[in-house]
Amino acid sequence: MENIRTGSDFLHVGNRLLEWYKNNARDLPFRQTKDPYKIWICEIVFQQTRISQGLNHYNNFIKRFPDVKTLAEADENEVLLYWKGLGYYSRAINIHKAARQIMEEYQGVFPAQYQDILTLKGIGKYTAAAVSSICFGGKMPAVDGNFYRVLSRLFADDFDISNSRAFTYFSELAALVMPDNVGDFNQAMMDLGSEICKPKNPLCGECPINEDCLAFSLQKVTNYPVKTKKVKTEDLALTYYFVHRNGQFLIRQRKDDFIWKKLFEFPSAIPEEMEPFITQSKTITHKLTHKNLSIEIFNVAVSSEKEWNTFIAENQYLITDIQGSHEKSFPKPLENYIQNSLKD
Ligand code: SF4
After folding, report:
1. What's the number of CA atoms in the CB half-sphere (13 Å) around residue 172?
2. pLDDT tens digits for 318-340?
3. What mean pLDDT value characterizes the chain?
4. Active-site residue 43, yes or no?
5. Alpha-carbon distance 271 to 281, whole Å?
6. What are phi and psi of 142, to 5 degrees?
7. Ligand 1 pocket mutation, candidates 157, 191, 200, 210, criterion most atoms within 8 A of CB
C-alpha cells in the first residue's frame, strides 16, 4: 500500500515535534554553532558513529582543523590520523578533497545553496540538506534512516525502504509534516529517531507525536519500517606478514579503492627464503559493512640482516618503529595486532 496524502492535515505533527525539540534537544557542542564547516564535519562523523563514541574524535578533529582552509592545507596522512577510531576512512579522504574544492571553486567560502553543496566530494543529499537547512535556512528534508523509520511508523506506511525510490517517496512524505523551520525540524527528526523512535523498543509512551502515530494506535510499531532486500555479505580471506627486526617492522600504504584505501598495511607475501623466520600465526576475524574478513597474520622475526635488507630493497617497503606505530593509520585489526605485539 502506498498512501497518498495531500493538504496540510499533518503540519501540526511537525509543529508538535518542533515544540518538543525546543525543550528536549540534545545538548551537543555542534548545536551551539551555525558554522557550515562544523555542521558538515559533525554530520559526516556521526553518520555511522554513536554520539558518545564520536564526540572526542569530533572535538579533536575540529581543534586541529578549525576551518576549511586549515583542513585543505593539511597533509592527507595527518587528516587520516585524526580520523583514527572513526573507521570509514574514505570519508576522511573525501572531506579533505572537498575542503580543497571549496578553496579552489568557492574561494574558501562554504557554499550556501543545496545544489552547490551537493557538488562537493563525498557529500550526498542527506548531508547537503542538513547543512543547507541548519546553516542557511534551506528547505530540503534531511532524509535518512531516522526519517524512514519515523515516517513509516507515523503513517503505518509499508513502502519498502530498500526500494530505490524510497528516498524520493519519504522526502515527499516528510514534506507533509514539515513546518517552515526546516533546520530545526531536521534536527528534531534526528533526535526523535535516535532517542525515542528507536529501531528496537521505541519509547512510544514518551513520544511527542504518539497521538498521531498510526502504527502506535494499531499496535503494529514493530511492523515498520518494511525492508525486504537484505544486503549480501561477502566472506573475504586476507594474509599478512608482520615482518620485524630490532623493534622495527615493514609496511606499505594501500592505494586501491577496494577496502582501507590510503591506510598502512603489512606485506601480503614474503619470499621462500624468509619462511624459516616465521614464528607463529594468528587468525583474526573482523566485520566491515558488507564483508566478513578472516585475516591470517604470520609473525616473521627476521634475524638475518641480509634477508631483511634484500626484502626491503626488492619491495620498496617502508620501515617503521613498532613503538611509534600510533603515528600512522592502520586498519583496526592490524592496529590491534601491533598493540598486542608490544605487550609480548
Ligand atoms: S509513537 Fe512510537 S512508533 Fe510512533 S513515532 Fe512515536 S516512538 Fe515512533
Report:
1. 12
2. 999 999 888 999 999 999 999 99
3. 92
4. yes
5. 17
6. -90, 80
7. 210
Condensed to tens digits (0 to 9), the pLDDT of residues 187-245 reads: 999 999 999 999 999 999 999 999 999 999 999 999 999 999 777 889 999 999 999 99
Which DSSP state fits 231? Answer: P
Taken in order of first residue, the domains within the chain and their CATH numbers are: 11-223 (1.10.340.30), 234-343 (3.90.79.10)
Closest of 298, 295, 296, 301 to residue 249, by C-alpha: 301
CA distance 139 to 154: 21
Atom from ligand 1 closest to the CA of residue 210: 1
Burial category of 253 from C-beta neighbours within 10 Å (exposed 0-12, middle 13-18, buried 19 and up): middle
**CB neighbours (10 Å) of residue 179?**
16
User: Considering only CA atoms, which of 154, 122, 117, 120 is closest in space to residue 133?
Assistant: 117
Catalytic residue among 2, 19, 43, 307: 43
* Cα 215 to averaged position of ligand 1 atoms, centre (Å): 7
